[in-house]
Specification:
Strand content: 5-15%
Radius of gyration: 17 Å
Number of helices: 8
Largest sheet: 8 strands, mixed
CATH topology: Rossmann fold
CATH architecture: 3-Layer(aba) Sandwich
Number of domains: 1
Number of strands: 8
Shape: globular
CATH superfamily: NAD(P)-binding Rossmann-like Domain
Strand order of the largest sheet: 3-2-1-4-5-6-7-8
Length: about 280
């Protein structure tokens, strides 16, 4: 996809790999919709994009731990943008952000499930009309090789909480959503893919976990940009990638029954009805 004149929304764009990708898209001439929680960091990114002098930028501040905020964010974007060519669902909470204890979202859901997965599930559906209004748009979900199967008797991990398990469950949920959404959409209109960008990138999330970085933000960002813009994946949909290569996610992603169960639960939690954003 030639990004000149295209519009891309990047969640979690004010730091780490999201910031890198947003700058690259702007350099390629895209209009970048910057999402973040910190207004100062968002303004700093917007100023840098403006200095590039290629694309344009819009800022939206929203806390993705609140479903009401996600709805407001989606509504503002829908009201202000004529269309959307790329939705990059990148914002996330790591296994140790905020400490090792179980945390909940504004709506009372387990925080990692809420931010990493549920917010993007809702945002994607709310923005589908904008994506459908453009030719051959793309959705890219930033997931992880760190995947934990969902225990549908304890999805919110109230009985056996562990930060790594919570993170892994939220990332597998993203991949399961990717598979299902791709089945709903015509690939000639919208493609949907997920990826593990790189292992332990040098990001705030990785440092918060006390882990020594193994990869650079640039490595992960370039893998994301390939799925977002490259011609050789323009017809690929419903797939999971490890960096630049196709990969096989946890077996639960291929379980039709598990995906249907997750979808039903997710629709109920975000207040959507089947087949209607």
């Amino acid at each position: 996809m030639d990004m000149h004149g295209k519009t891309a929304l990047v969640t979690g764009a004010t730091d780490g790999v999201g910031r890198y990708v947003a700058l690259k898209l702007a350099t390629a001439g895209a209009r970048v919709i910057v999402h973040g929680r910190d207004e100062a960091r968002a303004n700093s990114l917007a100023e840098e994009i403006s200095r590039i002098g290629q694309g344009s930028v819009a800022i939206h501040i929203a806390d993705l731990s609140s479903l009401a905020e996600v709805r407001r964010f989606a509504d503002v974007v829908a009201a202000s943008e004529p269309g959307l060519d790329l939705l990059l669902n990148n914002a996330g909470v790591g296994s140790q952000n905020g400490g090792p204890q179980r945390q909940t979202s504004v709506d009372g859901h387990e925080l990692r499930f809420a931010v990493n997965y549920l917010s993007h599930f809702l945002l994607s559906y709310r923005l589908l009309p904008l994506l459908k209004s453009r030719s051959r748009s793309r959705i890219v979900n930033v997931a992880s090789l760190g995947q934990s199967p969902i225990d549908f008797d304890d999805v919110m991990l109230e009985k056996r909480y562990d930060g790594s398990r919570a993170y892994g469950q939220s990332k597998l949920s993203q991949i399961m959503f990717t598979v299902d959404l791709a089945k709903e959409l015509e690939p000639s209109v919208i493609t949907v893919n997920a990826l593990h960008p790189a292992t332990y990138m040098n990001t705030t999330m990785v440092r918060a976990a006390g882990t020594t970085p193994m990869s650079t933000v640039e490595q992960g960002g370039d893998a994301i940009l390939r799925l977002a813009t490259a011609a050789d994946v323009s017809e690929t949909t419903g797939r999971f990638f490890n960096g630049l290569s196709k990969a096989t996610p946890h077996s639960q992603a291929a379980d039709d029954g598990a995906r249907a169960q997750l979808r039903a639960l997710s629709l109920e939690l975000v207040g959507l009805t089947p087949n209607s954003p």
